[in-house]
Amino acid sequence: MYSSEKYPSQILREAVEAIGSLPGVGSRSALRLALHLLGQPAESVHHFTAAVNRLADEVHYCHICQMIADADTCAICADHTRDARTICVVESVRDVMSIEATGQYRGVYHVLGGIISPIDGIGPSDIHIRELVERIGRMKGEDIEIILALSGDVEGETTSLYIYRQIEGLGVKVSTLARGLGFGDDLEYADALTLGRSITGRQPFRP
Amino acid sequence: MYSSEKYPSQILREAVEAIGSLPGVGSRSALRLALHLLGQPAESVHHFTAAVNRLADEVHYCHICQMIADADTCAICADHTRDARTICVVESVRDVMSIEATGQYRGVYHVLGGIISPIDGIGPSDIHIRELVERIGRMKGEDIEIILALSGDVEGETTSLYIYRQIEGLGVKVSTLARGLGFGDDLEYADALTLGRSITGRQPFRP
User: Fold this and answer.
1) Tens digit of each residue's pLDDT (9 = 90 or more) over A92-108
2) Which residues are CB-neighbours of A147 under 8 A, at least 6 positions away?
3) Which H helix or E strand runs over A111?
4) Cα four-point dihedral sign B53, B54, B60, B66
5) Is ipTM beyond 0.85?
6) 3-state secondary structure at position B105
7) Residue B168 Cα, gap to closest chain A Cα (Å)
8) β-strands B173-176, B145-148: how paired?
9) CB burial string A64-76: b at 16+ within 10 A, e below
């Protein structure tokens, strides 16, 4: 690697450092990308940076579900063909995109924007749990289902339990994602925890 | 992959497309990077884009060797301890950085900014060959050495030959990089072309 004091230009060095601060971009890749951008016409570079700046400056968050949107209400919450009484609680925008890509879900979402993680200093008030409780409180009727679709690690389990304690008195049905072997998975290659849970959580055979 | 019409935000889609236009960044990585930037404070994103914009707007090119620089003359050409009568001709800024990183070269450079490639529509007048010829013409004396340090492929060989024809009448010594097995290379794993050239171009043994 080219040592920092030998960069031919301070401007290049700063661009490499900025690009190298992105997750998963090493210093070699950062240099390669910076030199690529250096070889582009200025208007191409400006087009690139303007598109990135709009992420910081112009993105809205849905006032109902906290999903990113181009307006005050996201396209999913604005879609009246979707079941607004089934709310899937997820950690991130990415999770909504992943579930939407399955085409299997017709309810709506609630994006927490993070997960409870004491080690990272993230507590319940740092994510959108209060907004979820208030949202449920505003809804009438008893046929509301909350799907806790958080990750299966300690932080996800902790957050799911915390949310459950907050909403268990509100008369809503609370469910979580089915876990077990992936479809098409070989038993031979499954990890012991997943295989064990798949056996204890076995389901009726539907021929 | 999340299909384009299902992006929750047009702004996100445009940012992913812009990031995905970088070389070696696939659509999944582009989405991951865009969502990372979305989660950053606005000032971090602005710092990133400002550093990239300066690449397009503020970088100078050395008026002597065409290397990028923060002033009209690059740090290498401005360094009077370097041998200005030995000029290493390279394709790109990256090549200068690679040779400088070896610490083995005390001459100066001439950056062509490309390579002759008819298939890409790049001819001799599209790269800085004329500037090299004029530069040599301005220099007095007979002890000038031009090192043609271009790649070993067809385009590199073509460009080297073209430059040689332009400067052979100017009374300069012209050399090129030594090619052969890498230091520490096993014969067993060398490609046949390299091994063959290493034999025909064998050098005196210096014990």
Assistant:
1) 999 999 999 888 899 99
2) A86, A87, A88, A89, A107, A175, A176, A177
3) strand A107-111
4) negative
5) no
6) coil
7) 30
8) parallel
9) bbbbbbbeeebbb
Instruction: For the domain covering A4-57, report its CATH number.
Output: 1.10.8.420
The residue ranges of every structural domain in chain B are: 4-57, 61-176
Mutate to test the interface with A, among B3, B55, B96 (most CBs of A within 10 A): B55
What pTM, to 2 d.p., does this model score? 0.78
Contact state of B53 with A45 under an 8 Å Cβ cutoff:
yes
Looking at CATH, the fold of the domain delimited by A81-176 is given as Dna Topoisomerase Vi A Subunit; Chain: A, domain 2 (3.40.1360)
Residue A2 has pLDDT above 80, yes or no: no
Rg (CA), chain B: 22
Helix extents (H) in A21-120: 27-38, 42-57, 93-102
**How buried is residue B11: exposed, middle or buried, by Cβ count under 10 Å (0-12/13-18/19+)?**
buried
CB contact under 8 A, A8 and B74: yes
pLDDT tens, position by position, A23-33: 999 988 999 99
- State the nearest Cα–Cα gap between B44 and chain A, in angstroms: 9
Q: How confident is the model at residue B61 (pLDDT cuts 50, 70, 90)?
A: very high
What's domain B61-176's architecture?
3-Layer(aba) Sandwich (3.40)
Q: Which residues of A touch B94 (CB under 8 A)?
A: 31, 35
In chain A, count H helices and then E strands: 7, 6
Q: Do A36 and B22 touch (CB under 8 A)?
A: yes
Smallest CA–CA distance, residue B123 to chain A, in Å, is 17
Chain B CB contacts of A57 below 8 Å: 42
The rounded distance, in Å, linking the Cα atoms of A113 and B35 is 12
Give residue B11's pLDDT.
93
CA distance A36 to chain B (A): 8
- Distances from the Cα of B170 to the Cαs of B116, B145, B163, in angstroms? 22, 11, 12
